[in-house]
Design goal:
The structure holds three protein chains of three kinds. Chain A is globular and about 60 Å long. The longest helix of chain A is centred in the middle third of the chain and has 32 residues. Chain A has one domain. Chain A is built from eleven helices and two strands, in the order βαααβαααααααα. In chain A, α1 packs parallel to α10, α5 packs antiparallel against α8 and α5 packs parallel to α11. In chain A, 69% of the residues lie in helices and 1% in strands. By secondary structure, chain A is mainly alpha-helical. Chain B is mostly helical. Among the domains of chain B are: 74 residues, no CATH class; 52 residues, no CATH class. Helices cover 66% and strands 0% of the residues of chain B. Chain B has seven helices and no strands. The termini of chain B are far apart. By secondary structure, chain C is α/β, with parallel strands linked by helices. Chain C folds into two domains: 103 residues, Rossmann fold; 203 residues, Cytochrome-c3 Hydrogenase, chain B (Orthogonal Bundle). Helix content of chain C is 45%, strand content 13%. Chain C has twelve helices and eight strands. Chain C has a four-stranded parallel beta sheet, with helices on both faces. The radius of gyration of chain C is 22 Å and the shape is globular. Chain C starts with a helix and ends in a 16-residue tail after the last helix. The relative contact order of chain C is 0.12. Classes of the chains: A mainly alpha, B mainly alpha, C alpha/beta. Chains in contact: A-B, A-C, B-C. At the A-C interface, α1, α2, α5 and α11 of A face α1, α6, α7, α9 and α12 of C. Chain B: Pfam families: Oxidored_q3. Chain B: Its EC number is 7.1.1.-. Chain B: This is NADH-quinone oxidoreductase subunit J.
Amino acid sequence: MSGAAPLWTALLVPVLLLAFGYGAAAGTAALRARAAGTAPEAGLTAPARESARLLVQRRRTIPGADTLLWRLGGALVPVAAVLAALVVPLGPTAVSDLSVGVVWFNAMEVLIWAALWMLGWGADSAWGLVGGYRFLVQGLSYELPHMFALTTAALGAGSLRVSDVVAAQDQVWFAVLMPVAFAVYLLSALAMAFWGPFGTPVGRDLAGGAAAELSGVDLLVLRAGRYMFLAVVAAMAVPLFLGGGAGPLLPGWAWTLAKTAGVVALLVWLGHRLPAVRMDRFTEVAWVVLVPLTLVQALVVAVFVLTR
Amino acid sequence: MAETVVFAVCAVGAVASGAAVFVVDSMARATFALLASFLLTAVAVLLLGLSYLGVLVILMMVMEMMVMAVFMIMYMMNPAGLMPMTMVHNKVGSLVVSAGVFLLLAAGAVLVPWPERTGEPPADPTRALGEAVMGEHMLVMMLVGLVLFATMVAATVLTTHRGRYDRYGDDLRRERPDDPIGGGLGR
Amino acid sequence: MDVTGWLLRRAAPCAFVVTAIGGTGARLAVERAVRERGWRQALAPAEADLLVVCGPADSELDEALDRVWGQMPGPRARADASSPERVVEVLDRARADLLDAAAQRRDADERDRAARERAEAAGEEHMPGGLPMADRGEDRDGLALDRLHLALGPALTDWPAGLSLRVVLQGDVVQEARVHLVGARDGPSFWDAPRDTSRNASPETDRSPGHPRTTAAAALDAAQRLLFVAGWPAAALAGRRLRDALLEPGTGPGPDAELRRWLRGVRRSHLLRWATDGLGTVGDHAPGELRGDATDRWSRWLEWIEAAVEPDRSASEPVPTAPDTARAALDLVPELVVGRELAAARLIVASLDPDTEAVGAHTPERGT
């Protein structure tokens, strides 16, 4: 049931990510419009209207900026999202079904650390610098629990290959078998996409933080990249914890898309309902509560695998 | 053929970006030049068929370099507009030493008569690696891990000038610690 | 085909709103208009295309505004909303300015030419970008670290009007702080000023100062600012909508049910409590409204808001914008933010929410 798709399907990856990303942005805008007392339908076109505005807006040149790192940082965000998505299967096939797909996904998603720091540093702005450092603190907080969550899923399947992880769930979804790992994965999904309650690196209290000095097409690339990233971490939750393309009646790819849409909707709703998490407080929770919790979860799954 | 081209590009790129570390005039750029060098080396490892090690190099190096960036540039509140600064000291001496070491290693790689391969590469190098590390050498690896961890904890404890008596009072009776910035759990 | 014009017409403007002391009425009208038109409010000048200035002109504020104007990438337009009545008119005019592609191109060319001339005139520079370097000082752990001087405000979103907090940062930790008011003037606070209530003077629709509904609207205004700073835009936007509904003359108990739901949602948020607990704790020497930590202060606002919708519950607290309270809040800011990182400092300022209009031409004490 596994397989690598022909190379041209790699072109489909950014299109699908953009579609899901647009959906997340439109959903957020619609929920915001409802909160603001205007027609929620207007939210559906809001990302497109905002993109039109940013396409016309001029780029900025800043005295003393490290333009190379600054521009590189912004461009790296969508690139990392697409690279991470190469191992995410749509139905039974992924663009590349690497034997270490889970580690590849993890490695590509860590590129965001470098991207945001470059973005914050390069702009020669105090807001940007604080935003960039803030994301590193966030990274150091979410990454270990996140890695243990990924490890637990791989442990359950006895393989780092994403298609093996999917195959191991034909009896019971890993979301049921390892609920703690799934919950931690969703939490870190929000954190690594620096979105919703974990959006403080580009937060309002920092006047936009790492994105404070961006304008025009640079800002558009960052925002689109961020939503693509949200889409890809949501999409990866499907093969890791939600049984991949398995489901009755519909073909595998349809199930994958439907489940991904469900996870994206859940993340958007969480982002709407929750205020920001302050990193100086979350770090302690991550290290003192989440790390032991995910370790115990991994132990339980290991014992389960050995005795099965 | 394609592999040779990829290897050549990555090899030249890795050396070039490695050299760039000492040429650029900002700490941030030096950090990322070093990172680029490591990432290109990781591609070479991937070409050897060691996918786990290659991807792991990418993963760990990005995180490591970012943590290094924090320590190198931490609290230098001169975003980007840092004064251009040279990345080398003792220019002549370091050039001589590094060129000598490079030539020595390159000569070793070229001149040593490498033995012919006798065995077959394992079907799954990742599994073979895991068995090598966690098989008969397990005790050593666990000990090494523990020692590394203990070193990190000890180093942190030694550098922190606040101890438990500062936090919980002289008789350790304070309910909530007295910290300049409290954590999220209130302990 | 004119792609630029086509895109411009479809774009929803993004407004960077700066409020001068004495501009609260105009700010409320602007926020309302922006919200109802589905426009966005910018976090920073870099992403904005509309600069909206609320309130009377002031020479010191103008300097800050010039810098903001220079940071806006263009196409750009400026709207001076000196009074609430003129808001719709000036926003419409600014929107038309934005759509005038020919004029925007001229503006862009002019700026490019000026930038080139400046670059040629500057020639060789000692500092990168002509910017001064940070100096060094001891931090709280005894390490010599770079210090950066930064002014928070007056052109900052969700920030008290005209407040400029001059801080020295190491990392993102505030080491020193000093309060300065830009454009301070004598005059009543917006929330205390007598308003025209002749049209509908029934008790249901009375919006005069001291009335529970005015107090509630003022508290809602403070709460929405805090919620934005705390990173909860959905609740903050809903708060703005309810505030505008409370201030609307002639409405009956319309928003009350929704207001109750909003109060329940905010009060129940453990995450919000967790973010503000223990921040900026003020002892008993301060006026009653400011005592406790940030959580205590915003919980008090919620009580005032509740008093407006639950008539049988009387608000025992004094009017929140008494000049003495505002002055005390302003004087408390420096000592409370020192030693805190920026996120906490912003939450502390938002929870104290000094009404800079009520203090008059008060000179704040020099901070540490």
